Amino acid sequence: MLREFIDSSLQNAVNIDVWFNALVEVGRRHQLEYTTFALLPRDSLPYSEVFYKSNYSAVWQKIYEQKRYAEIDPIVRHCRSKMTPLVWGSETFIGAQEEALYEQACAFGSRWGVALPIHGPKHEVGMLCFASSVRSDEAKRDAVSSLPELGLVRDFASPAGLSLARQKTSAVAPKLTPREMECLKWMSLGKGTWEISQILRCSQSTINYHITNIRIKMGVHSRSAAMIKAVGMGLIEL
Q: How much is the pTM?
């Protein structure tokens, strides 16, 4: 039954919404009503570049983003640095800042849960997190006993989610010329304007022209921002 679910609902999902709704259903079967899937294409990228899906209220998601809670969230910290699953609750949040975060999360129904780290073969990093608003020792025991199943779901959900996310971002990726793609590639390898001009056998002003066009098409103001955005869109790999 689990195998059929993975094949039909995760690996063969036709779009991101179908795929994510399948994850939400997994959580609800274990009395975990909230589901979050978050994935950075590269562990070196800032949180602003995360691929993120959640069924938390839009209000809580906005507060979490505006207050940059990901930077102090112990669940996020665990998943970025460890491979083991985390059954978390009030005891996970230590210190005034983290306790304040937990209290606010509780107000939006996130009292305890299970977080499963994601570490991909191309330096992807993220988590699949299920949470509950109900204080229930029985539900916690069920979640712990279901960790092998949830881990398997995580393993199959991650590549499918990343693929769907890349399809979505590539659909809105700007169209770059072959020369602009070459410049972007060499920029990602740490080459400066002069070095790229030598490699491509053209003037530095020509390279600067192409890089300016890249930034304009990407809607950013710096080379580093252009590379970060290109990685998120699947145009290049760092």
A: 0.73
